[in-house]
Amino acid sequence: MQSELASLSVADGIATLSLQRPEARNALSLELIRAMGECVRRVASDDSIRVLIVTGEGKVFCAGMDLRAVASDPVAMGEMLRELSRVTRALRRLPIPTIARVQGAAVGGGCGIMVVCDFAVTHPEAKVGYPEVDLGVCPAVVAPWLIRKIGAGRARAMLLAGGTMSGTEGFEAGLATHLCASELLETTAAQLAKRLVAGGPKALAATKEWLNALDGSNEDAVLDRAAEISATIIAGEEAQSRLKALFAR
Amino acid sequence: MPLVRLELNAPCVTITLDDPGRRNALSTAMFDALRAGVAAAAMHETSAVVRLRGNGPAFCAGFDLGACVERRTLLATFIRRLSLLNRSIRRLRQVVVVEVQGAALAGGCALLSACDFVCVAPDATLGYPVHRIGVSPAVSLPTLTIATGGAARPLTLGGDLIDGRTALRIGLATHCAESPDTLPTLVDSLVARLAAKGPVALAATKRWLNELDGSARNTAFDLTAEGSARLCDGDECVAMLASFWNSRKR
């Protein structure tokens, strides 16, 4: 299936979902998040797909939420956060292993997509992290996935400190599961996908279901509240004035 | 002389344990002063960061054991007060940064994991050497297990002391200075970075982290505090504490 903003291709049981806004460094607009959600639904309904690779067209995996596009519209910002919350949980609950192939940068919501995947491959020079609090934004939507990935203690320091880090640092902190030279990114992700395709699909689905149940990934109440908290904070004066200053640069 | 010094300045409130002659031990008076300090920080609306530090060569050497030997019921009281203090630090609206030089032992170490950022000197001495006095460090576990995950098990069961670099590796510390001398600068720069962020978003993020990791709820704090406190009346604790204290005096 092709959309203007996200594409899905399938070969040998491996699906590749690609964000298609390279001119905006694949920043997450509401339309892009919805297009991504449509691709995830398609993957969920296709039994022939055994592994999903999530990537972005161009030099950057995903630069985060495209808040500039909805500047001065806090209601639209909130809706984007709710949509991101829906798509990340759909991605998490796919019955197949997912791999984020991260080139260039995965920032804010982009880092959230990377971390919600079961595996993430990146390179040393990539820029990853959660600078939300620097902008007066609360990263509640992505916090549950980060806590599950790297543990609550490390997630606390990372989310409260804001900022970004290199791919190497992200790998050492546990955000990425694989680190390789940038020119080997596609090969490394492809090899990993090929190895995962060889696994028993029922066993993989059962294991994934069980992991999700154990770590709370299926609990909608927490994730719904997270989206509301982020939406409320982004509509507040602090976030709006900081974002306005950022957009004015 | 007050045992805790408080500097209420926007955007950072500094709480300094100021009893260096007794290595900032947690006594009744120190618990009173810390409770008042944390309460004052909580009321300080224009600050986004709280910096917790200890004056002198040690951050905090743990409970005032001499007083506990003199008054047997005091140890259980200290454990309950430590649990309450940890919750109140954890639930401060502000981001809490603790600066740790020298020793942070037992109750002193317990304070660390309640904080959001733990900055240590590389030669700091940290740990829970409390089984030798028949005390369980369980009161630390609600926040320690969040910070360190599985590493809390050998740290609290083994009772070995670790240095700052090891603390960083296992997640008890979030930052380790290159040298003891550079610790204050490291904390200054972290505090400045945190103070530049959106205080509303920071507070919301912290509240949300507390909710997700369970530290917004009292259950685990209550259970572990009571579990630790109950042991204090037992023969094992009474005999081991007295024997430890006597050997120290010799």
Describe this structure in words.
The complex is a heterodimer of chains A (249) and B (250). Chain A is of the alpha/beta class. Chain A has one domain: 2-enoyl-CoA Hydratase, Chain A, domain 1. In chain A, strand 2, helix 1 and strand 3 form a beta-alpha-beta unit. With 250 residues, chain B is α/β, with parallel strands linked by helices. Chain B is built from eleven helices and eight strands. The two termini of chain B are 30 Å apart. Chain B has a single domain, classed as 2-enoyl-CoA Hydratase, Chain A, domain 1. The chains are: A alpha/beta (249), B alpha/beta (250). Chains A and B meet through helix 4, helix 5, helix 9 and helix 10 of A and helix 5, helix 8 and helix 9 of B.
Topology:
The complex is a heterodimer of chains A (249) and B (250).
Chain A: E1 6-11, E2 14-19, H1 30-44, E3 51-56, H2 74-92, E4 98-102, E5 105-107, H3 109-116, E6 119-122, E7 127-129, H4 143-150, H5 152-161, E8 165-166, H6 167-173, E9 178-179, H7 185-197, H8 201-214, H9 220-235, H10 237-248
Parallel strand pairs in A: 2-3, 3-4, 4-6, 5-7, 6-9
Antiparallel strand pairs in A: 1-2, 7-8
Helix pairs in contact in A: 1-2, 2-3, 2-9, 4-5
Chain B: E1 4-9, E2 12-17, H1 28-43, E3 49-54, H2 65-70, H3 74-90, E4 95-100, E5 103-105, H4 107-114, E6 117-120, E7 125-127, H5 141-148, H6 152-158, H7 164-170, E8 175-176, H8 183-195, H9 199-213, H10 219-231, H11 235-249
Parallel strand pairs in B: 2-3, 3-4, 4-6, 5-7, 6-8
Antiparallel strand pairs in B: 1-2
Helix pairs in contact in B: 1-3, 3-4, 3-10, 4-5
